[in-house]
Amino acid sequence: MGNRVAREDYEWVYTDQPHADRRKEILAKYPEIKSLMGPDPRLKWIVCMMVAIQFLAFYLVKDLDWKWVLFWTYAFGSCINHSMTLAIHEISHNTAFGNNKAMWNRYFAMFANLPIGLPYSASFKRYHLDHHRYLGGDGVDVDIPTEFEGWFFCTRFRKFIWIILQPLFYAIRPLCINPKPITQLELTNVAFQLTFDILLFWLWGAKPVVYMLAGSMLGMGLHPISGHFIAEHYMFLKGHETYSYYGSLNLLTFNVGYHNEHHDFPSIPGRRLPMVKKIAAEYYDDLPQYTSWVKVLYDFIMDDALSPYSRVKRKLKGDVKQE
């Protein structure tokens, strides 16, 4: 458990990200893929149903013994809340109401944010679009761990702790790498969320609040679904910076496992990404892919060649236009 990781730096490259060129090539060969772009009319109803399920859960846990509150927090609440974060990821690409109703998407994301307990939907939108536009960009892409994370979490035990603490690092990292001025939408998100949290505590006490907040933290830490954080862009094979996962957990995560397809076509809703893979199969079938996020977590911890430094990073050229 004390073996140190061999890496001492990121994988620096001097090429552009692969997704833009592949998108152009695929669209030239299969222009019908354009018909898959645009909002998913089912998404808003699925999100409303999930929010309602969590509201019902808040009511049901208020009278349970604490041991059962904690059990259901990890067994159920963490799954739903992590799924809600990926619903917000979908909405950040305007797939709920379309590009013509951008503000509807922003406020709907705040509604989807309610069962998570921590206000983050407005900030996530700003940073996530930079991640797509400048994948691996030094000082811009906050999905890449900081120098401290790469340096300190360099043994198997420390990597295990790092995975548990992933929610903390995802919250702090933007402030260290690429801090941005606070916007009015972010302030609205905070006010809306805190009002909801206080109202929940006032109505039903501490247990629903613990179920909500602990579920979000546990679901994004050491949890099978959180394997997607590692699977998406950590360099398990040299020369590959994005990986797809085609397992059953895509049913809970809005097909975020189709990650090569998502970065190639970020305006296509998750529900339609399997159709992209089917149409342009020759572009995706031979790319490295995963069948288990649990195995991804295990391999990341146990493989002494892997660490938070195992990310492709590039110096950006020209003007950088951020959200």
Task: Note down, in words, how this protein is organized.
- By secondary structure, the protein is mostly helical.
- It has one domain.
- It has helices spanning 19-29, 43-61, 66-92, 102-113, 121-133, 147-152, 156-164, 166-177, 184-204, 206-219, 227-233, 259-264, 273-279, 281-284, 293-302, and strands at residues 11-13, 244-245, 289-290, 312-314.
- The protein is globular and about 55 Å long.
- It starts with 10 loop residues before the first strand and ends in a 9-residue tail after the last strand.
How many helices?
A: 15
Output mean pLDDT. 94
**Content of β-strand:** under 5%
Strand order of the largest sheet: 1-4
Through-space gap between termini: 41 Å
Helical content (DSSP H or I, runs of 4+): 55-70%
- How would you spell out the order of helices and strands? EHHHHHHHHHHHEHHHEHE
Number of strands: 4
Largest sheet: 2 strands, parallel
Structural category? mainly alpha
CA radius of gyration? 20 Å
Number of domains: 1
Question: Which regions contain 5 or more consecutive residues with pLDDT less than 50?
Answer: none
**Inertia-based shape:** globular
What would the keywords be for this entry?
single chain; 323 residues; mainly alpha; 15 helices; 4 strands; 3% strand; isomerase; oxidoreductase; lipid biosynthesis; FA_desaturase_dom
Short summary:
The chain is mainly alpha-helical and 323 residues long. 55% of the residues lie in helices and 3% in strands. InterPro entries: DES1/DES2, FA_desaturase_dom, Sphingolipid_d4-desaturase_N.
